[in-house]
Structure formats: structure tokens, C-alpha cells
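Go through this:
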Amino acid sequence: MKQILFIFLLCLAWPSENNAQLNVNISSQPVWGPTGYDYARYYYLPDLDMYYDVNRREFVYNENNQWLYINHLPDRYRNYDLFKGYKVVFKEDRPFENHAIHFVKYKKLKNNHQQLAIIYSKDKKYHQIKGHPSNKDNNGNKKNKKN
């Protein structure tokens, strides 16, 4: 009986390939990514109509019917605030292969700034989003911070 218990505990403690991937992914999500997810493979950014590959840390966008990877936002979006825009989380590979479906399904999220970013940055300006619903109590009043 002790041997079975030992084997069971060993299996629980033994790092699996999936756990390693999950841990790597958590640490690689950008600070502007959405909260509440322990794993994300891609984000779809409805405001920009493009994707972000979390593992590669690159944006994916369509140009002339070809999906291109780039490590920064294209110049036309250089002033876009990634902290404010809505991100749709995908756990599967290559969601852009179903882009036509995503474009229609998520177009209602354009200009939606109600999603919290991960925000563990040392830059204090990102620690609280002004006017965000999470900064208000159930009655819509500002929460008071007690020190």
C-alpha cells in the first residue's frame, strides 16, 4: 500500500511536458495582456484586426492575403495603446486561419476598453486604469484605498 501511495505522489510531483509549457507561457505573457488566463497562445486584437503570438512575442497581421509576423506594431498603429484595447484569448495554434469568423464574431469588441490588463509593470501609471469598472464599488462609486 505504501508503494502505491509513493508512486501516486511521485506522479503528482513529477513535472510533465504540459506543466512546463504552461509555466513558460505564464511568464511570457505581455504586461498588456488580459487578466484571468493562465495560458494564452494568441490574442486577437479587434481594434487592429490582428493577432499577437504570445510564445513568439510577435504580432501577426494580414498583408496582401499573407499572414506576416513582426516584433512590433506596424507603423500605422504606432500610437495605439495596447493596455486599453480588448484582447480575445486563443489557446490553439494559428487562429488566424479562421480569421473571417473571428472578424465577424469579435467586431463588436472594437473600442471596448473594459478589459483589465495583467499590469505587473514597475511603471506606476499602469497599476490602475482610471475609470475602469474594477475601480468602483457595486454602486458605481470610486473605491477608497486604505493604507
Notes: The two ends are 52 Å apart (CA to CA). Residues 16-24, 120-140, 142-147 have pLDDT under 50 and may be disordered.
